[in-house]
Amino acid sequence: MGTQEISAAMQRVESVLRRRPGIAIHDDAQASARFVGGMRCVTSHENGTQVSTDMPVELGGTGDQVSPGWLFRAGLAACMATTIVMAAAAEGIDLTRLEVDACSRSDTRGILAMSDEAGHPVGAGPLDLRMHVRISAAGVPAERLRALVEQCRRRSPVPCIVEQAMPIEIRTEAG
User: Fold this and answer.
1) Report field, pTM of the whole predicted structure over 0.85
2) What CATH number does the domain containing 122 carry?
3) How far apart are CA 165 and CA 73, in angstroms?
4) Could you report the per-residue pLDDT of 111-122, keeping only the tens digit for each?
């Protein structure tokens, strides 16, 4: 789908949502992870798509699949890229290049429930998150592209989850 088709689709949705804002609130597609042995899990989408994860050999996995943390970073990068494509289309910008890298650093002691040298528990989450965006569009000044990327940072759902630190409700069925 090209820039004009993306823009037209977004305009149709926006028109409907202006008339009926209540339908904008919806349940997102569920991701269901199932343990299949060792450190491997298979996560499924309702459309049948499945993604296998495993942990590195050092943590008891086989290392032959991506880790759940990598999937998070992949979601972060893909969501940001998708939001940029949508915003560019809305502004009539034909992108010639868009690449988004999502990187982080982690302290493995956190996933093992260890403490640091001072005896404080080490957090299990990443120490930091970084995204690197490479973007080009013929005839569009670099400053306009930078502004577009910054605008998308504030409206891209997955990056917003991280920046807004949304609480997670957990319901456990055991037995």
Assistant:
1) yes
2) 3.30.300.20
3) 16
4) 999 999 999 999
